[in-house]
Design a protein that fits this description.
By secondary structure, this protein is α+β, with helices and mostly antiparallel strands. It is built from 4 helices and 3 strands. Strand 2 and strand 3 form a beta hairpin.
Length: about 120
C-alpha cells in the first residue's frame, strides 16, 4: 500500500511525498515542581504574557498555569483523550522548542525544489 508520487518529484532526488516539517500540536512549556519553586517569579511573568505552563512532578503533569480570563475554552474530545493518556503515562508530552528531540530529515533537495514543484502543480511555469 504505497503513496502515488508524481514522476516529476523524482527529478530532484528522493521523492518528496509524506514530508512533514513541523508538528501540528501547539507546544506548551513544561516545568518541574522544583524548578517552578526556584524561579516562580520568572514563570509568573511568562504566564502574564500569555504562556501556558504545565507543572510536572516526576515527569507527570500535575497542574497547569495560565492567566485568568473568561471561561477557558471547552476541552475537545481529542484533547481530553490525549490528556488522559499523558496522565496514565501512555503518552509523553514533548518538550517544546527542543531541536534535539527530532531527528533531521534524511531527505535532501536542491534549493528551489519546492517552488518548482508547486509551480508545476499549479501549471505556472
Amino acid at each position: 500500500m504505497g503513496v502515488d508520487v508524481p514522476a516529476r518529484a523524482y527529478r530532484y532526488g528522493a521523492p518528496l511525498a509524506d514530508v512533514v516539517s513541523r508538528d501540528y500540536i501547539v507546544p506548551m512549556k513544561a516545568v518541574g515542581v522544583r524548578e517552578l519553586k526556584a524561579r516562580l517569579s520568572r514563570y509568573l511573568r511568562e504566564v502574564q504574557a500569555g504562556e501556558i505552563i504545565l507543572v510536572t512532578d516526576r515527569g507527570r503533569v500535575v497542574a497547569e498555569l495560565r492567566a485568568p480570563g473568561p471561561a477557558a475554552p471547552a476541552e475537545s474530545d481529542a484533547d481530553r483523550a490525549l490528556r488522559r493518556l499523558a496522565e496514565t503515562g501512555e503518552l509523553r508530552i514533548g518538550e517544546p522548542h527542543d531541536p534535539q528531540a527530532y531527528r533531521a530529515s534524511p531527505v535532501r533537495a536542491r534549493a528551489g525544489t519546492a517552488r518548482t514543484l508547486l509551480a508545476e502543480e499549479r501549471d505556472e511555469r
